[in-house]
Amino acid sequence: MLATTIPTREEIVRKVSDLIPSLRSRAASAEENRRLPEETIEALADAGVFKLRRPKHFGGYESDARTLTEVFTAIGQGCGSTAWVASVYSIPTWMACQFPDEVQEEVFATPDVRICGTLSPTAMATPTDGGIVVNGKWGFISGAHHAHWQEIIAILVPPDGEPYPVMALVPLSDLLVVDDWDTMGLRGTGSVSTFAKDLFVPQERVLPLPVVLSGQTASQRNADSPVYRAPLMPVAAASSTGAIVGMAKGAMDVFLDRLPDRKITYTNYESQREAPITHFQVAEAALKTDAAGYHAWHAADLLDRKCAEGTEWKLEERARTRADVGQVIQLAKEAIGILANASGGSSVYRGIPIQRINRDIQAVNQHALMHPNTNFELYGRVLCGLEPNTLYI
Q1: How confident is the model at residue 47 (pLDDT cuts 50, 70, 90)?
Q2: Which of 18, 61, 68, 92 could make an SS bond with 117 (beta carbons 3.0 to 4.6 A apart)?
Q3: 230-383 falls under which CATH superfamily?
Q4: Residue 196 above 50 pLDDT?
Q5: How much is the pTM?
């Protein structure tokens, strides 16, 4: 397939920024229906969002992490669930680029292919002639309703030797999708569960997970591309932060939009924007959002620099990217919380966007690989000279 004309970072960001009003207008519908509207998926495709991590030789952009961060920040200003799904798609798409080239030919034959996935090894696999047989369930599969493929993780039990995790690609049509996503936050992401029963996966679509975590690739065509020569976890970390910063920016947008016409009940303030406490709240939230952006840019710029240099990742650098994610979440949660607390009793109504954004960031905070406490502990452990107590670094 011929490579496409690749827009600049500024052009891509401008396209998605133009979508903010329409994404914001459909955010309530996404939450109500517990999945993204088809119009949103089409708009993201038209803006080139699904080409960001697609290889150039398949018509993609091979965008760097800084571009992803800025794009997902803009999307998050309009709708947190949309930004979350877009960022999640980007990670398994990058992972698909680690597979042998013949596998990629099959996957990227679909224009604007969308790949969902997980890093949780909640299934079991057994070897068989020509591949493996998988049984199990995966939860929190964001964007599954609109995906073509799923990247799965399973524990392979060989006849001899120790079990180990493998990563595989399977068509969504081979899995049972169970709509069990009924949550307090990120409702619009459609993060349902998927099941495999005696599912055969050919060997060429199976890779040992430790190989991918360490930054090795089975692809010859992508081997020299800076975008694809990195360990998995720094890629996943840097791909996730933009959506979170965008939520905080979106919270500020909707808060300021209500501000001029909102009184402070039981006071003589006819407009909330006249109250000194509001000035402190807005300033503190803005500064925390800016600080969250700093950590997002730091993770992205570190990843892009290391990929461009082709230098080996230090353990401390890997741990730092996860710590950056934790700090982005903590600061964004604090910023959104300040604005939500300042929004008054009327903000409890579902039609007021700040309450949805506040619930969305609370849901993000609970993600097992993104929780601030987990990531800070890992970073501190490495700084103290101890070995990490996880493969996911």
Answers
A1: very high
A2: 92
A3: Butyryl-CoA Dehydrogenase, subunit A, domain 3 (1.20.140.10)
A4: yes
A5: 0.96
